[in-house]
């Protein structure tokens, strides 16, 4: 799959714009935020004003500032989790596909065991044992998510590993890592790129869900899922405080899915159709 010659449709352009805005907010937003992320500057659930454009949260912190810092925390953790899960899943998946035999059986059965346990329950157990630090959160989500990446990478690798150019590389005496890097990975990149966007969405929502349950990102760090939980009581008073982080979560998820849908549509086109474009 190549993006050259494929102009994104309007929906994909909207998705790219949303992603760019959120990434820009995560990168430079904290320097533009009017207050500190844990600084109390008003009354609890104070209405929007010139001092606080989106009002205050349950303990008087500026909602806009918390949203900006929350973008860095939530998006950053989800991105790191996704990159780490792809590194683990692709490495083990391609290794199982190339070596086959007992290595494939052992890795596949280990993945089956992990997948047999509901992801949320397993995450609750691991975080309950090792604590809810950001490092534990990242490693737990990455390992759990790598099982899905492993299955895709293994399936792609098995289809590519039997092709002639891979057999030629083996006959030349090329090692496992050379074959993975130069023969399998470049030819499996198209579906993996699309899968990366989907896995990011799942990890992003999973981080938010764990924070909403109180076992994800811990105070004083701002996190969109935790902000929804902390301000849920405002709904009873007709206040919009919990809606802001919820809308941010929904917007980024929809934006990424719009781009992924475009990438999948490119990958699904037959080679002849791509050549004509």
% residues in beta strands: under 5%
Uncertain runs: 271-277
Distance from N terminus to C terminus (CA atoms, Å) equals: 13 Å
Our Rg estimate from Cα atoms comes to: 22 Å
Corresponding CATH superfamily: MetI-like
How many separate domains? Answer: 1
Order of H and E elements: HHHHHHHHHHH
Number of beta strands: 0
The helix tally amounts to 11
Helix content: over 70%
* Name of the CATH first level: Mainly Alpha
> Please, what is the average pLDDT?
88
Largest sheet: none
CATH-derived architecture: Orthogonal Bundle
- What does the overall shape look like? elongated
> How would you classify the helix and strand content by structural class?
mainly alpha
Could you name the CATH topology?
Answer: MetI-like fold
Detailed description of the structure:
- This protein is mostly helical.
- The protein has a single domain, classed as MetI-like (MetI-like fold), CATH 1.10.3720.10.
- Helix content is 70%, strand content 0%.
- The protein contains 11 helices and no strands.
- Helix 2 packs across helix 7 (176-184) and helix 2 (63-99) crosses helix 8 (189-212).
- The protein is elongated.
- The model is unreliable at 271-277 (pLDDT under 50).
Any chance you could write out the topology, listing elements then pairs?
Layout: H1 10-32, H2 63-99, H3 101-115, H4 119-130, H5 134-161, H6 164-171, H7 176-184, H8 189-212, H9 224-230, H10 243-268, H11 271-276
């Amino acid at each position: 799959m190549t993006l050259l010659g494929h102009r994104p449709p309007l929906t994909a352009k909207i998705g790219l714009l949303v992603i760019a805005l959120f990434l820009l907010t995560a990168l430079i937003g904290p320097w533009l935020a009017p207050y500190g992320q844990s600084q109390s500057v008003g009354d609890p659930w104070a209405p929007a004003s010139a001092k606080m454009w989106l009002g205050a949260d349950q303990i008087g912190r500026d909602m806009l500032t918390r949203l900006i810092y929350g973008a860095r925390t939530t998006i950053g953790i989800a991105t790191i989790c996704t990159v780490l899960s792809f590194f683990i899943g692709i490495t083990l998946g391609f290794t199982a596909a190339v070596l086959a035999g007992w290595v494939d059986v052992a890795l596949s059965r280990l993945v089956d065991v992990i997948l047999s346990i509901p992801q949320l329950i397993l995450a609750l157990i691991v975080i309950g044992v090792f604590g809810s630090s950001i490092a534990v959160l990242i490693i737990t989500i990455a390992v759990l998510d790598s099982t899905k990446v492993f299955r895709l990478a293994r399936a792609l690798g098995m289809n590519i590993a039997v092709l002639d150019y891979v057999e030629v590389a083996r006959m030349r005496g090329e090692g496992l890592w050379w074959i993975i890097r130069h023969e399998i990975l470049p030819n499996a990149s198209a579906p993996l790129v699309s899968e990366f966007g989907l896995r990011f969405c799942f990890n992003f929502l999973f981080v938010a869900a764990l924070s909403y349950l109180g076992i994800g990102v811990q105070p004083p760090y701002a996190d969109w899922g935790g902000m929804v939980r902390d301000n849920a009581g405002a709904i009873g008073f007709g206040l919009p405080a919990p809606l802001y982080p919820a809308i941010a979560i929904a917007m980024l998820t929809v934006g990424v899915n719009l781009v992924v849908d475009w990438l999948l549509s490119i990958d699904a086109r037959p080679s002849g159709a791509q050549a004509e474009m």
